[in-house]
Amino acid sequence: MEHFTPFASLIGGILIGLSASAMLVFNGKIAGISGIVGGLVIPKANDTAWRAAFVAGLLTGGFILRLLAPQAFEFGIDRSGGALALAGFMVGFGARVANGCTSGHGVCGISRFSPRSIVATVIFIVAGAAGVYVVNHLLGGVI
Amino acid sequence: MKSTLVSFISGVIFSMGLGIGGMTQPAKVIGFLDFTGAWDASLAFVMLGAIGVHSLFYRMLRNRSSSRFSLAISLPSRTEIDSRLIGGSVIFGIGWGIAGFCPGPALTSLASGNLSVTIFSVAMIAGIFVFDFIRVLLAREVRAENTSGEVTEDSGLGYSRRANYGKRLPARE
Fold first, then answer.
1. Among A81, A114, B11, B59, which residue's CB has the most CB atoms within a 10 Å radius?
2. What is the DSSP letter of A24?
3. CA distance, residue B70 to nearest chain A CA (Å)
């Protein structure tokens, strides 16, 4: 393990957990990013402001990180535009097909001990590991 | 208004957590998924922290019928492990493994101005839009065909709402 950061990662995780909890306790909503964005595609009455506010918060947090800790955005991998576009589309589309992503299933769903979310998260990790194996070990880390 | 503010602050805290936790560094995410290489277990600690905290709050909330702001609590109602869940998860996972980004970190990282992140995020939002457009178009067709029946509208978040679409209004006398 080259860059093992258990302490920072645990703190980051606790913040994510607090954020998801605030959404549920105060607003009664699941902090699933793909679902929140998906609901903005064709906006429904009284169901848009909280979604837009959450996304605006994410971007604002991103700018705060850029000012205070730009190393948080270290990219560190070699990927072509085509590979990024393909991967991005798969992540967005796949998350909506599966009704959730790493936040909705991986954090919120597992916290409710939802069998669906546990299965989805295990598949995310196994399929992700397969993708990484192909790129890192068969293609030499460049795609 | 209060709830919109909570959403905004939650978004800020969420992205700070992603950044501090290492989720906005694709090399770190890929290191976590690289079980046969130099495995970096850090992201397991992100999950541990997030699930540990959130499961406690969820337990506290379980017996409440509405949120602290008296809003309805929208929890997913689906329980079936079907081909849609599995197929979507496989597509998502492979994409996650190729680029090392999932949706939250990708949106957060847009603030960095990095071109690679922008390409990924635009494609990701396109993937979400394509799915939701198809979903809504299909739902409209179902509604148009069912003029008297009850259809289940898929809200797309895993909540199924029973609704009487197209139910004829009682005739006026």
1. B11
2. I
3. 8
3-state secondary structure of A142: strand
Q: Does the structure's ipTM exceed the value 0.90? A: yes
**Contacts with B154 from chain A: Cβ below 8 Å:** none
What is this structure's pTM?
0.87
Query: Minimal Cα–Cα distance from B148 to chain A, Å?
Result: 24
Using CB atoms, which residue from B4, B17, B94 is nearest to A12?
Answer: B17
Phi then psi for B107, rounded to 5 degrees? -65, -45
What one-character-per-residue DSSP string does chain B give? -HHHHHHHHHHHHHHHHHHHHTTT-HHHHHHHH-TTSS--THHHHHHHHHHHHHHHHHHHHTT-SB-TTS-B----------HHHHHHHHHHHHHHHHHS--HHHHHHHGGGT-HHHHHHHHHHHHHHHHHHHHHHHHHHHHHHH-SSS-EEEE-SSS-EEEE-TTPPPPPP-
**Each residue's pLDDT tens digit, A19-73:** 999 999 999 999 999 999 999 988 888 889 999 999 999 999 999 999 999 999 9
Q: Which of A5, A38, A49 minimises the CB distance to B132?
A: A38
Nearest chain A residue to B61 by CA: give it. Answer: A25
With beta carbons under 8 A apart, name residues in chain A contacting B36: 133, 137
DSSP letter (8 states) at residue A78: B
**Closest-CA distance of chain A to residue B153, Å:** 14
Q: Is the pLDDT of residue B157 over 80?
A: no
